[in-house]
Amino acid sequence: MGEMEFDALGAWAWDLGRSDSTGERPQPGAEIMVIPTGGTFHAKGKGTMSVSLKRANALVLGCFLAGAPAMGHAHAASPGEVPTSAYEHPQTLVTLADGRRLNLFCLGSGSPTVVMEAGGGDDSLSFQAVQARVANVTRVCSYDRAGMGFSDPSPYPTTLMHVIADLHGLLDRAHIGRPIVLVGHSDGGLYAAFYAATYGQQVGGMVLIDPDSPGLDQSALSVLDQPWLTTWRSDEQRDIAQARDCLTLARRGALIAKPSQYATCLDDPPHHDAALHHLLDTQLSRPTEQSAIYTQDVDTTPAANNTLSPAEKVFQATHFDFGDKPFVILSGTNEQSGLPLAERTKVNQAMLANQAELAARSSEGRQILIDSSTEYLQLAKPDVVVQAITEVVEKVRKRSAS
């Protein structure tokens, strides 16, 4: 792969002038921006920091600042953000063909419509810091996947194919015009990329926020030395076990009966807003929500002694060619804090190169590097995320007008 250089801002920057191991110059895009940020966040739900790549699911958590509350839903809404109260009730419940309802939250007007796909274990709440700002530019919709938030559960596990089918049905039933601009965070980036590969004519452009891109696990595993490779794999399986345990506890009613005893399965640390904290605990205590989290984690995590997750096997059979669609990948550069520096450096390089390769699947693709210890770039650097979305929206709008 190409080499990385540690620049004056403290971020890894891709040197476009150097070649990879094949002798071919990598093509992550015409422009690389390096933007330093600080702080970490964590997701709806539960868990502890590990060296596992599954930093996107509800099991991998961090803290924004010492003593700060949890994730994006854990900070008071700032000017320009969606008020916290908006997440205390459903917005628009859209009925799918099979009678299930998905919670859709749309703001603003205009086209193309931006559709936001949350990361693993998250729902529409994870876009609180950016959705209202994007609404100043065009219509923007987030939603809760099946079983999450205010959406009805699915009779099926939360797998790549089922998520895509639900999203497609939601867009049709909500009469959302195409082409759309897809925004995907973490595991949501996997879903967005696969949706664009499957329904290419319906997607005008994409912005992926630190996506778990196709081949990302293999890229990281290929550069790890022992004992860290074994540690990485065991952490992934530990995360699966944690999710399974939380599901078991939810089915037994233990999360409702003894929330303080099993806080790591719930909204922990608690949201500063008491009403929303109670609601999040209630949602996360449901077996249906814990099942959605667990089955999604199983689908996107390699099995023991297997480098391919079920979702990755689907990706291996998928042709990703995004033509000339406007496409931006926002990549955090320093997230694997559970690893020693040497191993962390190698893993970060491999992950950034993998995301750069995905960006290169469009002739209009580019990668923006952000020095951040969190994958929640929409919370750590919302201005950058809004700027990237606005750029893609304007390009799609210009093409539609021509």
UniProtKB/TrEMBL annotation:
Q: Which UniProt keywords apply?
A: Hydrolase
Domain AB hydrolase-1, chain residue ranges per copy: 118-284
* This protein's record includes keyword Hydrolase: yes
Establish whether keyword Nucleotide-binding is in the entry: no
Annotated Gene Ontology cellular components are:
membrane
Q: List membrane-spanning regions.
A: none
| Molecular functions (GO terms) | hydrolase activity
Name listed for the protein in its UniProt record:
Alpha/beta hydrolase
Q: What is the lineage of its organism?
A: Bacteria, Pseudomonadati, Pseudomonadota, Gammaproteobacteria, Lysobacterales
